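@channel sequence for tomorrow's demo:
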Amino acid sequence: MVAGAAAGLLLAGLIGIPAGPQTPPIFNPGAPGAPSRVISATEAVELSRSSFTADDVAFMQHMIVHHGQAVEMVELLQTRGAHPTVRRLGQRIALSQEAEMALMRDWLTDRGQPLEMPGMDHSAHAGHAMPPSETPVMAGMLSPAQMQALAAANGPAFDRLFLEGMIRHHQGALDMVDALMTRPGAAEDTMLSDFITSVVGDQSAEILRMQSLLSDL
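structure tokens (generated this afternoon):
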């Protein structure tokens, strides 16, 4: 049996068949008119990290802020909400969005990009001595005035405001994805593309769930 195996290896070598499993080559397409070249797995990872646009970066920076407000809304839910199913849904949303925020921060850091867009103003959240603004930091988010109204509510009234606000919030995230996809060359980064697919699937399903809960209140 040993002799037979040795003969098989020798025959494979003579006719050019690999003797064992091999990693398939990774080809990097060349510029127009130039040939492709074989690259290493390490080079492939580095290239994947460089295939992003300024629009991709802005999307991730904005989405971190967007997710952050959703987490704040769930924090209010834990002490002010009345419906246990709404509370459980909120906890799932917070866990999901916190994990996604960590992923987005890692994505930006790995590509040498700042976590915040230069000039991004978060002061509208606070309001300070001035009346809270009716204008959200970005489309789809609750305005500071709406966040204040949510924080002032309790019980079933809170649950209703929370669901209405989170539905609007999730729809805003879907609108952000739609806007990104209209930009030339955007979302070609593999990790970003996978993230967007997850956001669309998860938040679309959660919108339907929240709409059902809202109709039962």
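heads up for whoever presents: The first strand starts at residue 26 and ends at 28.
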